[in-house]
Amino acid sequence: MRDLTRLLKPKSIAVIGGGAWCASIISAAKQIGFDGPLHPVHPTGKQIAGHKSLRSLEEVPGPIDAAFIGVNRHATLDVVAQLRRLKAGGAICFASGFSEAAAEDAAAQDLQAALIEAAGEMPILGPNCYGFVNAFDGCAIWPDQHGCSRVQRGVAILTQSSNIAINLTMQNRGLPIGYMLTCGNQAQTAQTDIALQLLDDERVTAIGLHIEGFGNLRGWEALAQKARTKGVTLIALKSGVSQQAQAAAVSHTASLTGSDTGADAFLQRLGIRRARSLPVFLESLKLAHQFGPLSSNRIASISCSGGEAALAADTAQGTGLIFPPLNPRQAKDLSAALGPMVAMANPLDYHTYIWRDQAAMTQAWAAMADDEIAMTLLVSDYPRADLCDASDWECVTQAAIEATRRTGRPFAVVASLAELLPEQTAKTLMDHGVGAIHGLDHGLEALDVMSRPMAPPAEPVLLPGIDRDAELVDEQSAKLALAAHGLTIPPSVVVTDRSTAGQAAADIGFPVALKTLGLAHKTGANGLALGLTTRAEVEVAAPRLADGPLLVERMVAGTLVEVLVGVTRDPAHGFVLTLGAGGTMTDVLRDRASLLIPATRAEVTARLKDLNIAPLLEGFRGNPPVDLDALLAAIDAVQAYVLANAERVEEVEINPLICTQDNAIAADALIRKAQ
């Protein structure tokens, strides 16, 4: 990994090119307080943003720590090579038209390879990259306006989108941003390479990652492991979809999995918390910066409005957050602070009896906090300063600060509308240890993000390998292949002469199922007959089924639950193991949970408990529980098969896996693999 220190903390900056972008570089650097030499370079020697440019890089006096290359893609190669010869600390490659344009321009991929070769050991960000702002050290290589100001401690944000990065710098929520970095198309330096080095900066309190695609999975695993060691929270905003060709999927698993499931499973496995929108991303980063992960999902809310109390309770629905009932100590102390007219509850409406009485507000809010509460929310919207007298709400700010000081417990002031918590008020609250949350809905989502238990460290994921053309394996061959790895399958026999099917069924034992081999969806193709209990029934049904070899199989008795166990090869994230409701309920319930291979029994058990059918597995309404060990053994067998055939397998599915009181038996199986 190349050392990015000189590039990200430059003492001198060269700006190559003559366009408006280059002038903006000089302006942005001065805006953030850069006081080192700025060297514009242009062959005409013209004035750029008040600086006379040098005609060549060789004229730059002293070392070049960082450079912005604002010329076209072809000229970029020569400039990079010159900077390397001059032992520059690194460069931002602004030009586009490299690998991101390869689909339209055959030469683009070759240009990217040439760029990497030209850079050699010198680090470069991009191409198609906006650069960065370092608000810790007061330096920026940024060809536009930005909203950053100097901070002592704060978060780092790395994004693959320059425009999103610009917008994030303009936030007015009180979030201290220490680094804002764009990564471009990561020809040489990956997003994870940058984040790994930022973890060594003790001023970084949390790292936010806007991710369009993961790329090197091992790099992400290394980043997650180092972040755990450092105790730094990683929060992701994942956009984009992986290139899973599901249009021709032949299994339920592929249709259930979806393009985003692998990404979600990968982030969960790494212990990277995922936000689903930009506001939640920012609010989660604020909480991570100030408090780190929450100690639990138990929260309390106090406001002077019954409407707000009800809204808080309703908004938390669908999250993992809970408002536990008040304990006796809370109820007693709140009653002492609020009197008999207030009904005790969580969320609490304290009415307006104590409004403007800062001492009473402090007493009530302090009473609401408790050692078993991870965060106490003080819901209050501040008036517009342009039309109203905002000083009337100073009692809220001061009572929140004093309640925090008095109890030592986490508090946050929450504005139900994001625009009704002024930035300066938010900064004042945060400077005194009080959280400042912009928007009740986004705030509760962020609290949910920060309260989720994270998975323990896991083995490296099984890499997906290269794309391959896969073919369907017939059901009997699939079952036998899985049985070799420990899967239990029913007794069966394949017949090509259908006149022998009746005898085969009698030998196996009734009831039986008849299945035409080679069909992915047997029911719709007249390839299935179930529940045949006599030889005569078999002899009638066999000739009526679709042509092909016939599988005669004993049906499983004692069914308690039917489960789907499937695996798809996700080219972007590895092999996705999906568990869900099986049989006829697969399409109806669409009840599933996914994780990546290899997965431990503890991980699998936890995901099984997340399913809506979990009560059926545990025993429901007088029914006995399924044999969990047998179910886990079946899932282990599927994983073992995939691990042994990773270079060729594309898809595996057992649907249904019939779970009984003492076994788990594959009633149907499908495999697609390269031959």
Q: Layout of helices and strands, plus pairs?
A:
Layout: H1 5-8, E1 13-16, H2 20-31, E2 38-41, E3 47-48, E4 51-52, E5 66-69, H3 73-85, E6 91-93, H4 106-119, E7 124-125, E8 132-134, E9 139-141, E10 154-159, H5 162-169, E11 177-182, H6 191-198, E12 204-211, H7 217-230, E13 233-238, H8 252-270, E14 273-275, H9 278-290, E15 299-303, H10 306-315, H11 328-338, E16 348-349, H12 358-368, E17 375-379, H13 394-407, E18 411-415, H14 423-431, E19 435-438, H15 440-451, E20 471-473, H16 475-483, E21 492-495, H17 501-508, E22 512-516, E23 528-532, H18 535-541, E24 550-554, E25 561-570, E26 574-581, H19 585-589, E27 592-596, H20 601-610, H21 614-618, H22 628-644, E28 649-659, E29 664-666, E30 669-673
Parallel strand pairs: 1-2, 1-5, 5-6, 6-7, 10-11, 10-12, 12-13, 13-14, 15-16, 15-17, 17-18, 18-19
Antiparallel strand pairs: 3-4, 8-9, 8-11, 20-30, 21-24, 22-23, 22-24, 25-26, 25-28, 26-27, 28-29, 28-30
Helix pairs in contact: 3-4, 6-7, 9-15, 11-12, 12-13, 17-18
